[in-house]
From TrEMBL:
It is an enzyme of class 2 (transferase). This is Glucokinase. CDD domains: ASKHA_NBD_ROK_SgGLK-like. Its EC number is 2.7.1.2.
Length: 318
């Protein structure tokens, strides 16, 4: 039994026909039409119809950044697209031959890791996606946690510093401001300003017109540059402390790290683990979860969206 997954990103829309084992059978890709929600709808409709044509596809899941309502029908708010209370599911179902559900993109990616990647063979998983911001997904007792209104699991907006740095969400002191790719750039810039171990960071920054790209920091991490590693340790320290709070509430068996910064692998996980163990409430008595890097990377959105849609179709058919 196959299902279709669509992942609407900021720059591209990915679509795939996915089997029950999470394997991609067919794949499509188109650029996201910026600021044109009707053109975007047309592309998603065409993709679903093309992928479903001549197959046994039972459902389509569409992943997008933003708040989705609890019935997985309406996008309350999407940061990248001009949607406010958009009844996207109804609009799509009128134009395609399979039932549709809408899923938050971080939830879709988390579900894919839980079913087929770094979280498989567990019942409780927390995933943090460390990109420009900090995305989150929670699986509790084998189920994706969405909250009562569908807007839960926004782990990046847990407050870690009272009256801390202002966040894009309108609050202050969210972990996103201390544990994201942007925070890593801030730490690296401070080290570059100070010289010493930050000298290599300062050199590459001045070569790039006084701007430190995430990729440059990543390259220096790969070369074990002491300044870049120090910036990554600062980031890991914040994330490890946040995970200790998540563990106190959710008690997952595994924390999965995805997103661009997670490509640092063990160099990120080691300081996360260390800070986690130092801050974990009731440490010494609380069983230790594992810390792993995400496995599905670019395909997680489409694979997760397809699997969520398939499970929903199977459950409603019963
Ligand atoms: Zn926030």
């Amino acid at each position: 039994m196959h299902a279709i997954g669509i992942d609407i990103g900021g720059t591209k829309i990915a679509g795939a026909l996915v089997d029950e084992k999470g394997q991609i059978v067919t794949q499509l890709r188109k650029p996201t039409p910026a600021g044109d929600s009707k053109a975007l709808e047309d592309i998603v409709v065409d993709m679903i119809n093309e992928l479903a044509d001549g197959t046994d596809a039972v459902a389509a899941g569409v992943a997008a950044a933003g708040f989705i309502d609890a019935t997985q029908s309406i996008v309350y708010y999407a940061p990248n697209i001009n949607w406010r209370h958009e009844p996207f599911r109804d609009k799509l179902e009128k134009r395609v031959s399979v039932p549709v559900i809408i899923e938050n993109d971080a939830n879709a990616a988390g579900w894919a890791e839980f079913r087929f990647g770094a979280g498989k063979n567990t019942s409780d998983m927390v995933m943090l996606t460390i990109g420009t911001g900090v995305g989150g997904a929670i699986v509790a007792n084998d189920r994706l946690f969405r909250g009562g209104f569908g807007a839960g699991a926004e782990l990046g907006h847990m407050r870690v510093v009272p009256n801390g740095l202002p966040c894009g969400c309108g609050a202050n002191g969210c972990i996103e401001q201390y544990g994201s790719g942007r925070a890593l750039q801030r730490f690296a810039n401070t080290l570059a300003d100070a010289g010493g171990i930050g000298q290599a960071l300062a050199d590459v920054r001045s070569k790039n017109g006084n701007y430190l790209h995430g990729k440059d920091i990543g390259d220096l991490v790969d070369q074990d540059d002491p300044g870049a590693l120090q910036a990554l340790r600062q980031l890991g320290d914040w994330l490890g402390q946040a995970c200790a709070s998540f563990a106190a509430i959710l008690d997952p068996q595994v924390f999965v790290f995805g997103g661009g910064v997670a490509s640092a692998g063990e160099k990120l996980l080691a300081p996360v683990r260390q800070a986690f163990l130092q801050t974990l409430p009731a440490r010494g008595y609380h069983p230790e979860p594992e810390f792993r890097i995400a496995e599905l990377v670019n395909d997680a959105g489409v694979v997760g969206a397809a699997d969520v849609a398939r499970q929903h179709a199977v459950a409603t058919a019963k």
